[in-house]
Amino acid sequence: MRRPVILVVAAALALSACSSAGPSSTSPATSPATPGSAAAQGALTVFAASSLKEAFTAIGKAFEAANPGVSVTFNFGPSSTLATQIGAGAPADVFASASGKTMDTVAAAGLAPSRSNFATNSLEIATPPASSVAISSLADLAKPGVKVAVCQQAVPCGAGAQTLFTKNSVQIKPVTEEVDVKSVLAKVELGEVDAGIVYVTDVQAAGAKVVGVVIPADHNVTNKYPIAAIKGSANAATAQAFVAFVLSPAGQAALASAGFAAP
């Protein structure tokens, strides 16, 4: 049975705090990190892709616990929309995107001078538990009458879905294109569609509300997730500390528990 993500984070924090061994590598994703940071204080606003909601909510709580006095607020949404908001001056301290392309737009504006990939995520087919339509592969989505939901093409999960269809030479006409992956998942959970293209992590988070159909690795599409502290942040030190926490063993444990793969 899976343990809650927050328990995994807590366990990782405890191990990190109790360990007396020094770092064996300078790689931020693999080297031990101090749970708390003396520089971390005050309020922090993190803009993060919708698919990160469960993992980052747990990471945010663990970061606050390790840094008394820090308050983390999340703005979850489509990566493309978040990138546009940041470019327009939205008060974000950290941006965690579901694709390098959306991070590129923030970097091009000079707002993300340094980034790190912190996780990867692959696509999966989600279907309603009581569906009368048999879905066992991508090819089934192309059958007449099958109602499929995807994300809008400007969103990483939508761009990934289109790449997936092209890669596998299947012609699928979605009945709806949603603003983000959680909206696609909701359509499946409500039984409004026969299938939706979401991430592996979304199927895991939904539990018994959906049934996942695995896409073979050699046919699938994988996204790299980058994170960056935003230039001009009013709380730069805490922003950097949060990024380091996501890349630390505790952060990576939370992401792994939520179904993300290593960067």
What does this protein structure show overall?
- 38% of the residues lie in helices and 21% in strands.
- With 263 residues, it is α/β, with parallel strands linked by helices.
- It folds into two domains: 5-17 and 27-120 and 224-257, Periplasmic binding protein-like II (D-Maltodextrin-Binding Protein, domain 2); 122-219, D-Maltodextrin-Binding Protein, domain 2, CATH 3.40.190.10.
- Strands 1, 2, 3, 4, 5, 6, 7, 8 and 9 form a nine-stranded mixed sheet that branches.
- Helix 2 (53-66) links the parallel strand 1 and strand 2.
- Helix 1 (5-18) runs antiparallel to helix 10.
- The longest helix has 14 residues, at 5-18.
- The model is unreliable at 1-34 (pLDDT under 50).
CATH class of the largest domain: Alpha Beta
Largest sheet: 9 strands, mixed
Mean pLDDT comes to 89
Strand content: 15-25%
CATH topology value of the largest domain: D-Maltodextrin-Binding Protein, domain 2
Count up the helices.
Answer: 10
Total separate domains? 2
What distance separates the N and C termini? 25 Å
What would CATH call the homologous superfamily of the largest domain?
Answer: Periplasmic binding protein-like II
The overall strand count is 9
